[in-house]
Amino acid sequence: MKDIQIFLSTYNGEKYLRAQLNSFLTLSNFERIKVLIRDDGSTDGTRAILEEYSERYGFEVIFGENVGLNASMHELVLASDPACRFFAFSDQDDVWLSNKLYRAAERLAPFAESDIPVLYAASSTLVDEQLRKIGHTAIPKRKPSFYNALVENVCVGHTQVCNRAAIELLKLGHSKDVMVMDYWVYTVVSAFGRIVYDPVYTTLYRQHGKNVIGYSSSRWSNFKMRLKRLSSRRSELNTKQLAAFLDIYGSSIPDDYRREGERFLNKQKNFFTRAGYIFMTKAYRQKRTECLVFRLMYLFGRYKIKKYKE
Known about the structure:
40% of the residues lie in helices and 18% in strands. By secondary structure, it is α/β, with parallel strands linked by helices. The protein folds into two domains: 4-218, Spore Coat Polysaccharide Biosynthesis Protein SpsA, Chain A, CATH 3.90.550.10; 221-308, no CATH class. α8 packs parallel to α12 (288-299), α9 (234-249) crosses α10 and α11 runs antiparallel to α12.
């Protein structure tokens, strides 16, 4: 019985795609796995590769028009197989280790038939273009939660696996203001259910300069990269995503979460209201230095968006 489904959205990914698809075939529980791929209007050789794997290995492929990665992944969520219990999100340029979905299914098994949405995430080994090891993603020091999801995503997309309850929840809403799909998934599931974090490395996370979200092998470079992200327009995109989340799910989430999200948005009116918020906020990032940077940026209005300006 195939009860695990992989979601993969492709776009002009011919350079690394075969390595990822081949790694699916080596998964230790492959007999339980279905692969659903949506191509987002590729113009290179990606389509031919997908047709080959569909014919040879039975991968289900949808050829769609270009709508962007976030919307494409949501299309996959909507097309999920109702017979499956677990659902894994994949990128097109990584390599999965054989134990990846076995570990995820084992940890999600107690929640297979649960009405509680549960999201599994794990750590990754950073590799260069030739798959040579250069480091690891950071393991969260603080518990993943909705308050963390307000300002940070610690559940990297290609490691995410969730149960059916989480998929049904994600089907209920989507928005053009979704910042990054995996961040959206972390926010939604953390508000309604549970996060299961596995510190074991189960994926080779390829760094090639074109990643949507990348990492560096150097601590100093990683620190500078994180500061650059914090100080860029990403903070505004973060706020837009939160506003979209509250519009869609706000009436259904626990009152404490709703109030914290509304305070995050509504205390941005001026310097003094923002100062009051940063001393009472429950929002946090994993590292203390980044918590400080977040509070300073909030204080000086870097999280403001047009909708919430006075």
